Amino acid sequence: MGLAPPGTLGIDFGTSNSAVSWAAPGGTARLIPLEDAALAMPTAVFFNSEDLRTHFGRDAVAQYLEGTEGRLMRSLKSLLGSPLLLETTEVNHRPMSFQDIIATFLATLRERATQALGHAPTRVVMGRPVHFVDDDAARDAQAQSSLLQAAQAVGFTDVSFQLEPIAAALDYERRLSKESTVLVVDVGGGTSDFTVVRLGPQRMHQGNRQEDVLATSGVHIGGTDFDQKLSLETVMPLLGYGHLGPQRREVPSRVFFELSTWHLIHWLYQPRAIAQAQALWTNYADPTLHQRLIKVLQQRLGHHLAHDVELAKIRCSESSGDAELDLSYVAPKLQAAMTVNALEEHLHTLLARTVACARECVQAAGLRSQAVDAVYLTGGSSALRPFQAALQAAFPGVPLVEGDLFGGVASGLAYSA
């Protein structure tokens, strides 16, 4: 590898997906392929206990779903700012902290960028949400510090941070022909972030853009929260969630909430957790539901369920039609349905809170809802049709512009240097 030329790597380390972009000074950012030709990669790590190799992205998810023995980890970003981050977990018979697992994923992003660029990048701008942790400044600062340490640990010597919605705005700005006031909506896996910003070709090359940022806001709601809610409403009742037992009391719900949350699922495979679930049998009037729950835990099918719920959500949203979940791996002929009406009904409260945060951002900028020139969408979960419909209702007459949902933030991060 030769001497690294000047330039900046932008890393959008997302809850669900990650992307990487490179820009030379004054140049155009280019997204870096991370898995063959794919420009975005699921933020997933699989520790294969059969050959002791570590797999990433789509390969990680595929290894797990094919039944390979090992440990799948997703939603790693959700652990930033959490006390769990420095705890150790056993990975292929050795203890490893979640902080180190995040560093392992970042190291892979850097290695793949190095392969594509022909040199090892040392300067990086990392994306961060408006709030890693809501209403807790100390934990929020700790989350950024932990991400900084992980980036430095894998070889980056010049590390800075940019708010993800501002990065998205910088990418969108390059497509504008006139000055505009834009509400940037970045809905990722773990957070929804909003920025009202003045953009335009005359402003693009200014060094300090702080005065152009009129307001920012964010809420800790994203795609993984949508998936959790849909799992609880469509799949978990088949395992006993909401089921009334012999005393007409509901089965304790904690296990179902954890089974619907990506970064908590693996804890349920521990012997103690399985024993606690087995003890719930007295709370069931229908033992079949309890048997399904135990099978899911003993055979480690939780991530499979979560993956199927996510795919059904996407199919339902994209087609505006119903989607069937084939759960025959849990019980013969077992199915669940995800309908368009159910999608809107189950997500109504979460979407309302998210859109309310967007409106508050515009109000904080001193603007009326119709005064913004465009609502610019980025982040994979912004493609959800019920969410777009709710946004359109909140900002009537304002065009919704769908950007590069998975690569826009990474490109903007490279520009932001």
Describe the protein's architecture and organization.
Strands 1, 2, 3, 4, 10 and 11 form a six-stranded mixed β-sheet that branches. A five-stranded mixed β-sheet has the order 14-13-12-17-18, sandwiched between helices. The mean pLDDT is 92. It has three domains: 8-164, ATPase, nucleotide binding domain (Nucleotidyltransferase, domain 5), CATH 3.30.420; 178-222 and 351-402, ATPase, nucleotide binding domain (Nucleotidyltransferase, domain 5); 224-344, no CATH class. With 417 residues, it is of the alpha+beta class. It has 13 helices and 18 strands. It is 38% helix and 21% strand. α5 packs antiparallel against α11.
Please count the beta strands (DSSP E, at least 2 residues each). 18
Percent of residues in beta strands? 15-25%
Structural class: alpha+beta
Give the low-confidence spans: none
What's the Cα radius of gyration? Answer: 22 Å
CATH class term of the largest domain: Alpha Beta
Q: Total domains, how many? A: 3
CATH topology of the largest domain: Nucleotidyltransferase, domain 5
- The number of helical segments is 13
